[in-house]
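Many introductory courses stop at the sequence. We go one step further.
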Amino acid sequence: MKNIVPTIITALFVIITLSSFASPKNNPLKNLPSLNIINTYLESTTAGNNTLDKYLFAEDFEYRNGMHKKGYTKTEYMRFLKKNKGLKYDCTTTYEILNESGEVCMAKATMKFTNFTRIDYITLTHNSDGWKVSKVITTYP
């Protein structure tokens, strides 16, 4: 019993010491401008490249589809993107920043398919972890 207590204390000390040296996962999008975040969002949605999704969306992210009048949370939308990994839309995509002021950025992405057009209105917010996509509203004019 005398040897168990020092062994446990030593083990805890080693665990605490090692965990303090473990490097946290750095957000590769943290210091990028809003334009790059919009490009990353479009890569994820139109080209099926969702490797950066965990850094891309704000915790309170909301997706709304104007046609179906349904809303989706970050978890639901990321699940959708994960299912469509590698799926590339056959469309021409253009985008523009409508307004960027301080901690908020609004952008419009237009995806022209053969028979219809999809427009995503993208809201980004800036915080200590960089720009994040916080809301997307999709319309079909």
